[in-house]
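Archive transcription. Copying these from loose printouts into the bound notebook so they stop getting lost. Printout 1 of 2:
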Amino acid sequence: MNPSRSRALSPVTAIRPEPLTIEIGVPVPVAPGILLLRLPLPFALDHINVYLLEDGDGWALVDTGLDWADSRAAWERALAHPLLGGRPIRRLIVTHHHPDHIGLAGWHARRWGVALEISAGEWTVSGRYGDPSRNPHLERIGLWTKNGMAPDDARARAEGMPSNLRMIHALPEAVRHFESGDVLEIGARRWRCVVGRGHAPEHISLFSAEDDILLSGDHVLPRISPNISVWPDGPQNPLAQYLESLGDFAPLGRDPLVLPSHHGPFRGLAARVAEIQGLHVKRLATLEVFCAEPRTAHECLPQLFNRPLNGQQMAFAMGEAIAHLHYLAGEGRVQRVLRDDVARFQRAGGVAS
């Protein structure tokens, strides 16, 4: 997936959840002409929300779920539901390349004879899924060992991670790209594409100003914060990208209905943005204090995560720790020193020679 998960925030008071009963495979109306469909995921974060938008005599689908038996079964149940009215999917839109969002894009594209619509940046990185010579899990070993994890532990954890990359249907051949500021006309609504970076290279959220609705994808979530990680082939300061683009979301609309990819719809977008920003400010301050002595990212994990981490959670945790340390280095608050091919970070002004 990247299951788009960091640890839960402290009790959320700023957002106002919309009261809904949501079941796997049962579409739920969340606004006129918009259905939320919840699909299962085989992870700690056990679901994803995808959305169906009325589009003439059919539907536009935003995100798809993973390609695995339980998800396909949920889809078959949903497609037979009276709320869908037997109407076909006419457009296929994916917010970003993570497996839980793009996993069934090829399946739907071939079933309905439609093109995939996705940003160019997300389509470029999704190419890894069609390259049988690559194993992104194993590619992380070098990054982890350079950031303080013992080599044997790094290899064991990488090899033990669930192979969710097998849960991606062969990607479509027909693809259309959109970019920030583009306007998609879907049914009676106009949706402006808003780019968010950091969680993914060019994540697209959709905003309807007329109806004050935001399809936020993973960029703004209730209850949890999206994973912001350094990966071997990605940007080296994704947290700076994330915080910069997150600020663009706070002023959207009057008090939009936010339709996220995980957990439930909510209102209170600006307050939620402030909460997430505050979480990262707190984490950064914690790490800056901890780095009074030289620390590796691996040594910083207990400062950020107060629970045991399994293989997949360790991957996201290491990525998050490195991202926060790189942000501090970019701000000049810590200095990075490479010794014995291992990166250590120390508060600025205290680095030993």
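Printout 2 of 2:
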Amino acid sequence: MVPTTGPVDVPSLPGRRRGRPPVENLEERRREQIIASALALFCEQGYEATTTSDIARHAGVGQGTIYRYVSSKRDLLDLVFDYAVEEVLAALQPVLLADEPPTRPAELIDRIDEAIARIVETFDRRPELLALVLVEAVAIDEELRLRVLGLEATLARIVTRWCEDAKDAGCIRPAVDPDVFGMLATKMLLPAALREVMGQRDPQMRNRHRSAVIDLVRYGLFADVGDERQ
């Protein structure tokens, strides 16, 4: 037996942890949960009628938790609006990241048609996003109204850039102004969007609006209409 000449160091055992185990990415998940609840209630009840306690109750968190992310309900609306814009732009990413710019009539038509289809699919899947952007946000204050106009301008710039590329390739009439066309094409979608918000979801009318935009491209831009699908 080996004699001991002093106290023996015994490694300390980990203490038993109390409470629930930590949840991975809890902060980000709570933030997303709060934004989702605010979006749902702003569209269902209206921004003015919705209180912070309503949002906290809907999200299943304490009211104080919300103020860890924002200082007011108005700040939370900014986060919700940003989320809605990100959803729209994310839907357009596959179109925006296309390897080559449109250099033939058919390519430009297909690019614009795909962009419209992706935006429509996003709002079909998340109709509350459209209601927020077109109704609630515009009604709150001038700052948000300008942000809505900024989103519209972003979409118009996307179409303008495609038209500029096609014009550089020589498949658009020289007299066409890409900036003006981008704005007009975007504005043509607004009546259809408002009908959707008002609950007038008519697939035939939706297709008529979509066809009108494509016809504007087909018959308003190209030097030779007979070759627009080449």
